[in-house]
Design a protein that fits this description.
Structural class: alpha+beta
Number of strands: 14
Distance between the termini: 42 Å
Order of helices and strands: HEEHEEHEEEEEEHEHEHEEH
CATH topology of the largest domain: Fructose-1,6-Bisphosphatase, Chain A, domain 1
Low-confidence stretches: none
Number of helices: 7
Mean pLDDT: 94
Strand content: 25-35%
Radius of gyration: 17 Å
Oligomer: single chain
Largest sheet: 7 strands, mixed
Helix content: 25-40%
Strand order of the largest sheet: 3-4-5-6-7-8-9
Number of domains: 2
CATH superfamily of the largest domain: Fructose-1,6-Bisphosphatase, subunit A, domain 1
């Protein structure tokens, strides 16, 4: 296998090319190209074609790796290395012509994420990191913000679109943060939310009903940028556990305790 920094450079180039493809496909895009996967869960031919292109390129970079891919164009069978791919994170935004939407690609070595790339296609911003590196945005080092309290934080979240069992607890948490922070934002792309925590645009992000391809790449970028990531209990089950808290280093304990209180 190539060195992780060289491999990350190759993946960044791939993600940028995919971003160009997404922007081109968005021109003249029609809702007739959209399929319904589940309640408020959509996919288009653009998602599927982008994933096929990504999978083919990644196989060339690391033939021995398997895949955890949102649209199921490739799978894994207990390989040591696994690519975790979301070809279009923010499909609902994309089909309505809204920003942001992103390409998210991570590489796992066993249970550890060792490479992460998030390319926000509309702004043409590529966020990336690898195990042991700094975190970067278009070649420039990035760090999480230095805000010291939740009261001075801008908080990002994602609305549940099919699992409403925790909806009242979630609404209670929104009520808390709306009154006790700089405000709330919901962008519609978890990968982008995490990238924005990494570069200090947000101080915190939390969401439940997440999938590995939503968070694998962004969670590594946040940590390499000096931030914290965990599940709602403060544990490490945030890749496959469907819940995630991510903050700068200063407010993590305070923010986590608030999330624990509500969930």
């Amino acid at each position: 296998m190539k060195n992780l920094d060289e491999l990350t450079s190759d993946v960044c180039a791939l993600a940028r090319n995919t971003g160009k493809f997404l922007r081109k496909e968005r021109e003249g895009f029609s809702l007739s190209r959209v399929e319904v996967k589940g309640q408020n869960n959509f996919v288009s031919d653009v998602d599927k074609n982008a994933e096929k292109q990504i999978v083919a390129s990644l196989r060339g970079l690391l033939p021995e790796a398997g895949f955890i891919a949102e649209e199921g164009t490739a799978t894994c069978s207990n390989e040591r290395y696994r690519w975790v791919v979301d070809p279009l994170d923010g499909t609902t935004n994309f089909i309505h012509g809204l920003a942001p939407y992103a390409v998210s690609i991570a590489l796992m070595d066993g249970d550890e994420v060792v490479l992460g790339v998030v390319h926000e296609a509309v702004a043409d911003e590529c966020f990336y990191a690898w195990k042991g590196s700094k975190a970067f945005l278009n070649g420039r080092e990035i760090r999480v913000s230095e805000a010291a309290t939740v009261e001075t934080a801008l908080v990002a979240t994602g609305f549940p679109y099919y699992n409403f069992e925790k909806i009242q607890r979630y609404l209670n948490s929104l009520n808390y943060f709306m009154q006790r922070s700089h405000g709330m934002r919901r962008l519609g792309s978890a990968a982008t939310d995490l990238a924005y925590v990494a570069c200090g645009r947000f101080e915190a992000f939390y969401e439940y009903s997440l999938q590995p391809w939503d968070v694998a790449a962004g969670s590594l970028i946040v940590q390499q940028a000096g931030g914290k990531v965990s599940d709602f209990s403060g544990g490490t089950s945030y890749i496959f556990g469907q819940e995630l808290v991510s903050t700068n280093a200063n407010i993590y304990e305070e923010f986590l305790e608030i999330v624990k209180k509500h969930f």
